[in-house]
Amino acid sequence: MGTRRWVAMLFLLPAAVLLLAIVAYPIIYSIIRSFFDQSGDSFVAFDNFQALFTDEDNLTAIKNNVIWVIVAPSVCTALGLIFAVLTERVSFGAAFKMVIFMPMAISMLAAGVIFSLVYQQDPERGVANAVVTGIHDTFSESSAWPGARPRPNDDVLAGPQKGPYTTKDTVSAGSPALLPLVAVKPQDLETAKPATEPKAASGGGISGTVWVDFKPGGGGKLGAIDSGEKALKGIKVEAVKDGKTVASATTGDDGTFTLPKEADGAKLALPASNFGEKYNGVDWLGPSLITPAIIASYVWMWAGFAMVLIAAGLASIPRELLEAARVDGANELQVFRRVTVPLLAPVLVVVLVTLMINVLKIFDLVWVISPGANLKDANVLAVQLYLLGFGTDTDQGMASAIAVVLLLLVIPVMIVNIRRLRRETRR
């Protein structure tokens, strides 16, 4: 339009100055600083880079970054492709896409706070463990009184820690079997009824009571049922003779049980299943699962991004090609594999490359979700850079080396993306 070149350069100058100040200068300074020691006074050449690939914490961060780059973009892209294809076949596709894309409106920090609560160990607070324990308890019966046990050096019951506990002497008809236990949590006894003395069993049977041998406020007699002591309901009691169970019963609301005459002369056993600790779910933020758990939160956020981009690419595919494949006898899976996916390949590459660049600098989710004790197990390069550059034990030479490595990792991905964009422009 006849505009002079120097006028265009004048308008570009402010942006160029800002670009040099906030991008070019920090990059150049970081490269130079990476060749100096912790204090910045001594030139150490490549020592920082050597330490980067030998220090245990740095190696953990590199390993986790590799896992992130391989797993997170692949899973997000695969889920985005599946969601995009399936939503085309349902009437509520638009609403479904909105729900899946909605987490993108949440910041990484907020998502980290949400998932730090989701992964809480206590099932009453953490949604993930509430679901896991609910499923577990549906198919596996929980113990009646976790942690209950006899007193040390008890005269009646003996056995290994957590059971089974067996009477030291055999029982006989006409003599009630009193089986005292302790170490029951007070909150577990809130709804328990008072323990009662066992009634005599008819027909030569054995009767007894299982209860908590502890009187609130103190006092009472050991081995005897005192006023205020609570019954243990649902305890399984077995009569054992010569290593074989000849009879069994379960205690009622008042802690009493009755065994048939076959139990006469047997020892009574309380199986370990009565006292096993309550299943408390999965340690999502433990050393072995913390990285997959954080990746799952990332997928929750970014699968919607992948779905929207892939859905846009899917909408541009000529329907005639899909119909022609179906007319030629291809089933839906073959159409998806041989026609849809190849035509979507450019879009899939865009999504994959964008997410790879994104996860190379992942920081917020790892920093917020990881408990302090397990941060080392979830560590990534961006977090390690922050800890070394701004933490209590600073080493800006090492931090700069990490920044340079991250730059070198991002550059090839960016080159691939730029070349792809240029090819698309030429078309």
Automatic annotation (TrEMBL):
Q: Which residues cross the membrane?
A: 7-32, 66-86, 98-119, 298-318, 339-360, 397-418
Report whether Transmembrane helix shows up as a keyword of the record. Answer: yes
Q: Which UniProt keywords apply?
A: Cell membrane, Membrane, Transmembrane, Transmembrane helix, Transport
> How does the protein's chain sit in the membrane according to the entry?
Multi-pass membrane protein
Question: Where is this gene product found?
Answer: Cell membrane
**CDD domains from the entry?**
TM_PBP2
Q: Name one GO cellular component term.
A: plasma membrane
Every copy of the ABC transmembrane type-1 domain together lies at: 62-417
> Known Pfam families for this protein?
BPD_transp_1
Q: Which GO terms describe its biological process?
A: carbohydrate metabolic process; transmembrane transport
Q: Which family does it belong to?
A: Belongs to the binding-protein-dependent transport system permease family.
Q: What is the protein's given name?
A: Sugar ABC transporter permease
| Originating species | Streptomyces coryli
